[in-house]
Design brief:
Blueprint: H1 2-13, E1 19-25, E2 29-34, H2 36-49, E3 63-67, H3 79-97, E4 101-108, H4 113-127, H5 139-151, H6 160-185, E5 192-195, H7 196-201, H8 204-215, E6 218-221, E7 224-227, E8 238-241, H9 249-262, E9 267-272, H10 278-289, E10 297-301, E11 305-309, E12 312-314, H11 326-333, H12 335-343, E13 351-354, H13 355-358, H14 366-386, H15 402-423, H16 428-447, H17 460-482
Helix pairs in contact: 2-15, 2-17, 3-12, 3-15, 4-5, 4-6, 5-6, 8-9, 9-10, 11-12, 14-16, 14-17, 15-16, 15-17, 16-17
Length: 491
């Protein structure tokens, strides 16, 4: 009977240090009251652990390849890529906090038709011709074309084929240099820039496809070679070698995955855009065809980002030349607000970024709300020091005000929230919890003073509350750091 189980549990729980009382209610409910001193002791633990608070070794020994952004070098990074930059970098930091060995990787797509269109667009702009029907437009095309001509003044004297090839080589390099600079200024740097063309030029694709033919994972039909991906859970078989003998895009994907595994990664996480749902099954099928566990592949799909200003959407189109770039968002709201706003929502949801809201210095603005809480902890610390309050004493049992209990509870939940953010690949859990902590801290600030008033003497309660203030400061700084957002001391 439930009540007998409750009685057995009650006897054991009551003997645990930090448990004040255990009461049995109704048919077997347990009401557990934690000793105030046990809860309050967390404040000292946090301060003493510092940046290590919340970290653990749950992912120790795991070697994770995290590929994100990977925007084509045919234009600046747009809002979708910017979202992945914020989410991906935060996820990498969170993985690392849980003990994982993480490699941030950018898949540099320098092979295929889009690069041809980019080169033709640059050449057309340089010659003063209209952009190709399937090409790219916009001011950035003019900028790159002018830079190419400045670096190689005689380029237009070449025949069109040679000129296009030079525009391809120089233009792609310049565009990608711009992309890397934009990402760096956004606080995102990669460990590896992997060139797609390398798996074609070094024979990896052709060699791997021959092995798949020999294993029976490829079959020939209608003049093309097909991967038996339906055998591994895909909704249809995929063309790997087209009827004209050229490799389909998935051929490079298979070789790229094999390359990652060859480099020793036991988990390959791909962060892809909203139009890449089909890649989930096909990449897992590719892993299975190579004899791997499909769970060595994870595909995270990010939804669209809509930019809103003055209540109206800001449109974007890379080809039409009305791109809303990463730099545009940063110029409008700053790196901190941009990163926080893009990370605080589930990647599975479409989001509207309100430029007007993110520039407000009010509690309506989530990043301001959290950063201001951290700045307030630092101000309280400075005021306490001026009043002679230090951390020379600590009485955990003194932190018994309801506002203190609430704040301690949310601080105590931080490690588990961080662990779940890593487990579910959802950095937004961390962002939202920081907002909860900030709210609890603001309420505590309104209810409990750290520094004495007027001529009141400094007490151990003042000193103990300084520990709690500083513990909150540490957790907010730790969490913001994992999101790639600064923790200001003054605002």
């Amino acid at each position: 009977p439930p009540r007998q189980i409750a009685e057995a549990l009650s006897a054991k729980l009551g003997n645990i240090d930090g448990v004040a009382s255990v009461d049995i209610a109704g048919p077997g409910f347990l009401n557990i009251t934690v000793d105030a001193a046990a809860a309050g002791g967390l404040a000292r633990t946090i301060v003493e652990q510092g940046q290590a608070f919340g970290t653990n070794t749950a992912l120790a020994g795991r070697k994770i390849n995290l590929e994100f952004v990977s925007a084509n070098p045919t234009g600046p990074i747009h809002l979708g890529g910017t979202r992945w930059a914020a989410v991906g970098d935060s996820l990498a930091r969170i993985f690392s906090s849980q003990g994982a060995n993480v490699t941030r990787e950018y898949y540099f797509n320098d092979h295929g038709a889009q690069i041809d269109r980019f080169a033709r667009s640059l050449l057309a702009r340089a010659k003063g011709d209209p952009a190709p029907d399937d090409g790219y437009a916009g001011e950035y095309i003019t900028d790159i074309a002018n830079r190419v001509m400045a670096s190689e003044p005689g380029i237009l004297e070449l025949d069109d084929a040679d000129a296009q090839e030079r525009f391809r080589a120089l233009g792609v390099d310049m565009m990608f240099t711009d992309i890397k600079e934009s990402l760096h200024e956004f606080g995102v740097d990669f460990d590896v820039y992997f060139h797609e063309d390398s798996v074609h030029s070094d024979g990896s694709v052709s060699g791997l496809l021959e092995k798949l033919k020999e294993s029976g994972s490829l079959y020939f039909e209608d003049g093309a070679w097909w991967l038996k991906s339906t055998d591994f859970g895909d909704d249809k078989d995929r063309v790997v070698i087209k009827s004209d003998g050229t490799a389909a895009y998935i051929a490079g994907d298979i070789a790229y995955y094999a390359n990652k595994r060859g480099r020793g990664f036991d988990l390959a996480v791909y962060m892809l855009g909203a139009d890449h749902h089909g890649y989930v099954a096909r990449l897992k099928a590719a892993a299975s065809a190579l004899g791997d566990d499909p769970d060595t592949v994870e595909v995270l799909i990010g939804q669209m980002v809509n930019l809103v200003k003055d209540g109206k959407p800001v449109r974007m189109s890379k080809r039409a030349g009305t791109v809303v770039r990463m730099e545009d968002l940063v110029d409008a709201v700053g790196v901190d607000a941009a990163r926080y706003a893009l990370t605080r929502f589930s990647a599975n949801s479409n989001i509207d970024i309100d430029l007007d809201l993110l520039t407000k210095h009010t509690n309506e603005n989530p990043v301001f709300y959290v950063q201001y809480a951290h700045a307030r902890t630092k101000a309280v610390g400075r005021n306490a020091e001026s009043a002679g309050v230090d951390r020379s004493a600590f009485d955990a049992g003194a932190l018994d005000h309801p506002a203190e209990s609430e704040l301690l509870a949310h601080l105590g939940a931080y490690p588990s929230v961080l662990a779940h953010a890593a487990s579910f690949r959802e950095p937004h859990r961390l962002a939202r919890h920081l907002e909860v902590i900030a709210g609890a801290y603001h309420r505590w600030y309104d209810s409990c003073r750290v520094a004495p008033v007027g001529d009141e003497p400094v007490t151990d309660l003042n000193r103990t509350r300084l520990w709690l203030n500083d513990a909150t400061s540490q957790v907010l700084a730790n969490g913001l750091g994992l999101l790639g957002v600064s923790a200001p001391h003054r605002m």
